[in-house]
Design brief:
Length: about 500
């Protein structure tokens, strides 16, 4: 970390500093940064007001503010949020929304409501659609910030005292449903979104919410079958295991530890989270969105079926390179999965233990060995789950409904940030590439376009050095396009 100090001696490009931890250090001048001796201990609410804008200055400012419970800071029109890791309800209540309503940007303390308010006013006054990008690494607080922004927009654009399901209520209630199926506990975040989303809120000419749509990206499918230490599978699996005794009986469910897809990590509970309560809340949210009880029943049947599917193990079959369910226990889970999927048990078994190769003249059935059958089982579980997720999103969109006459919308992009694990897969590659693209968008708008404008208007300014990642993007983007067109089958066949 950076440390405070007092300069004792300057010798060419080396500087000797007496640090606040009493150590004396000699360092290269480029590694030492100036500090404003008159800087306020409370920091500044906009980084552009800092006398010296460099990394230690920015970090020091954020820390000073955080120590005073100020978790938000501006850098011009960008809002930086530092995760408080504790509830701060007073920051987000109705009185707070009232205060930010129509207030000039920068007049009040930095806040997501202020960003949402600017977007709302610009949309109303200039008739131009707006987008708010929320980015940061896992656990930084993106989803929480997105929810605040959506709450504010729902407050501003809500219809007063309307009975029943209003669009804004439906939009807000889509969060718990998406979170139940798309969020999971990770090492860094107990409620980590394992998908990206772009929420579009449409408004009529009077600025009232008239429709909405949620677009989701890159659901982490591998988690359905494989979880690392200290992590969990998607919340909905644990919720259904905590359902009422009748439901557990109906779905033939037991403790999460009895299911292979849940017991790989020895982590079942999340502190302070009551799974059975969450389950009821999710059901309630589904009611509000307009998912019928039959549909809800079908959704949870599939969730339970996936758990049973994961418990089907395979043994060598009678023929060479063939397989069959390992024992009576596996047969039970296969039967239950088939019942819940409402499909033929034999057909399900065949789909796991055999593969059909389609040639021009005939269909050849090839048996699979036990290892390959396990692969088919996992592929089926992942595919069914991701289709269930996509179906839910479509259902949410159909229920909320879009307004074909709407001219303006505000989009909020909440997409997961850079990830780097011990072992990284294709999923991390896609996530990081997306983030690089967002960074490029940011570079374009904040540096490139701004500086071009300065040059055009012949304003005297000093060029800001920034790392431009365009070369990397071109390398991957163009290379990927070549690979995609030359080798890979269409997306839906690419298990
Ligand atoms: N403004 C806030 N007030 C209170 N708690 C917060 C706030 N922001 C974040 N948190 C806490 O931090 C946790 C992680 O935040 P969040 O889920 O928003 O992170 P994220 O950036 O969306 O992470 P991921 O990319 O993993 O989904 C939340 O569950 C919440 O406990």
């Amino acid at each position: 970390a950076w440390i405070d100090g007092e300069v004792l001696k300057v010798n060419g490009d080396t500087i000797t500093v007496k640090c606040s931890n009493e150590k004396t250090v000699t360092a290269k001048a480029s590694h030492v940064h100036a500090k404003d001796p008159e800087e306020s201990p409370c920091g500044v609410d906009d980084m552009t007001k800092l006398a010296y804008l460099h990394e230690p200055g920015v970090l020091q400012n954020l820390k000073s503010r955080y120590d005073m419970n100020e978790i938000y800071t501006y850098t011009g029109s960008i809002l930086i949020a530092v995760n408080p890791f504790r509830r701060l309800p007073h920051l987000y209540d109705i009185q707070m929304m009232e205060q930010y309503k129509g207030a000039d940007f920068g007049e009040l303390s930095p806040h997501p409501f202020a960003v949402a308010d600017v977007a709302y006013r610009l949309m109303l006054n200039e008739g131009i659609s707006q987008s708010i990008l929320v980015s940061g690494e896992s656990g930084a607080g993106k989803t929480e910030s997105t929810k605040m922004i959506m709450r504010y927009l729902a407050y501003m654009g809500g219809k007063a005292a309307t009975e029943g399901r209003t669009v804004e209520k439906q939009v807000l209630q889509s969060n718990p449903v998406l979170e139940a199926f798309g969020n999971a506990k990770t090492v860094r975040n107990n409620n980590s979104s394992r998908f990206g989303k772009f929420v579009e809120i449409q408004f009529d000419q009077k600025g009232r919410i008239s429709g909405a749509a949620v677009r989701t990206y890159l659901l982490e499918r591998s988690r359905v079958c494989q979880i690392s230490e200290s992590e969990r599978n998607y919340h909905c699996f644990y919720m259904i295991c905590a359902g009422s005794p009748e439901e557990r009986e109906k779905y033939k469910l037991g403790d999460p530890s009895t299911f292979h897809y849940l017991n790989q990590s020895n982590c079942y509970k999340i502190d302070g989270l009551d799974e059975s309560k969450e389950y009821l809340e999710t059901r309630k949210a589904m009611d509000i969105i307009g998912i019928s009880s039959e549909e809800q029943e079908a959704i949870f049947r599939i969730v339970a079926a996936i758990l049973h599917l994961g418990n089907v193990e395979f043994a060598e079959g009678d023929d060479v390179d063939s397989s069959k369910p390992k024992n009576e226990k596996s047969m039970f889970h296969l039967r239950t999965a088939a019942e819940l999927f409402m499909c033929d048990e034999k057909a399900l078994e065949d789909s796991l233990c055999k593969r059909i190769i389609v040639t021009r003249d005939e269909n050849i059935v090839k048996t699979l060995d036990a290892e390959a059958a396990k692969g088919s089982r996992d592929a089926l579980a992942k595919t069914v789950y991701s289709r269930l997720f996509d179906w839910l999103v479509t259902k949410i969109n159909n229920s909320i409904g879009q307004d074909p006459t709407s001219k303006c919308l505000i989009g909020v992009l909440d997409i997961y940030g850079f990830e780097s694990f011990k072992t990284n897969s294709f999923e991390q590659f896609c996530i990081n590439l997306t983030n690089e693209k967002l960074q490029q968008h940011f570079n374009q708008h904040v540096f490139k376009m701004e500086q071009e404008e300065y040059t055009k208007e012949e304003i005297d300014w000093s060029y800001i050095e920034f790392v431009d990642n365009q070369d990397i993007l071109d390398l991957i983007d163009k290379h990927c396009q070549m690979v995609t067109t030359s080798i890979l089958p269409p997306i839906h066949n690419r298990e």
